[in-house]
Request: fold
Amino acid sequence: MIKVQKGTKDILPEEMALWHKMEENAKLIFSNAGYGEIRTPIFEATELFARGVGDTTDIVNKEMYTFEKSERSLTLRPENTAGVVRSFIENGMHRLSAPVKLWYKGPMFRYERPQAGRQRQFHQVGVEMFGIKDATADAEIIELAEAYLKSLGLNDLEVEINSLGCPECRENFKNKLKEVLKPYFNELCDDCKTRYDKNPLRLLDCKVDSCKEIFEKPEVKAVIQGDFICEECSEHFEELKSYLDTLGIKYSVNKLLVRGLDYYNRTVFEIKSNNLGSQNAVCGGGRYDSLVGNLGGQDTPAIGFAMGMERLYSLMKSEGNEQLDVFVVSTDKKEALKLVKYLRDNNIKTDFDFNGKKFTKQMEKASKVAKTAVILGEDEIQNNKVSIKNLATSEQITVNRDELLNNI
Ligand code: ATP
Ligand code: MG
Reply:
């Protein structure tokens, strides 16, 4: 039998309600904030990612699906910022009045070791804003991420922010970091030994315990926790924090947050959940003021984020988001059919037992799949009434049929 490929998944009809909710809310919330949807191709020139994501990143070094056609090297997109930036440049969007605001959703491809929350084909929804250097843009982006997550019923999330400074302050920091880590070089994991030369900032991202211990050594910690960013960058970061305070957004500063992609400068952020195990990041984002210029466009500041939709899905699911609103429990199939139609016509997500099983079996099913049972027993049918049972609290009331909608 031919099976689905490792690290890929079918998304089945019973899962679709939550996927539609993620997609519809993205459209609603992002377009409300002035973002237009963009759809770019799923494969691009390999060089776009090598230059756009950075050839010292894990994504480019180990995770790309690359193939050749007519002597061209092509790659399935591992993320969508590079593609959006290519399109921004190619379509002359710098001529539009700033800010240019775009959002996208769709499949991404990374050759990773599949595990919970990590697939080889997965989906992201994200936004990018071009043309604004001011920290108000950074605040809007983080606010937008939070508003979207809230719209999906996800509240229990933590926002972490950091500033990587500009290329100049970062160079300074990289040198200090290398110097203080030099005596420990032989104790670093193999990946970190490579990072030490190629991309020292990424050391801080290491998940290996023995490396984490080294970062806790007093002299190393002092460098990591120290303020390395220049005055201008630090002013920008302070402004961002004050805007987040103004917006009532809770955050913490995590100096180890460096993000996987090479192109970030100044603000980087992540939104994490405590209910996802080790793959706990649902959203990653940051500012990338030099990327448009590096890919051959006119220098344009930019900032954005991407969220992993499979991780959003599992959080929504664990919060009971996919449940039915109502399961109709009835001793009479015709009455059940009529009531189900009536509720569905009123946009209430409803289902019932097609086989007319025993009352107790129907109640058992209702408590598994719905928030509310609407009950039509013989008494109710005779008196033109319905009973409504809240399946979380077990409270039950009986009302006239025409009061049903007001009581669900
Ligand atoms: P991680 O640290 O989990 O590997 P990342 O830094 O590689 O994440 P980004 O490239 O910033 O992630 O992508 C943004 C979001 O996309 C992540 O926060 C995560 O929710 C999701 N994501 C990334 N890689 C995968 C994957 N292989 N499978 C499922 N979701 C993913
Ligand atoms: Mg990754």
In short: The chain has 15 helices and 16 strands. Residues 145 and 318 are 20 Å apart (CA to CA).
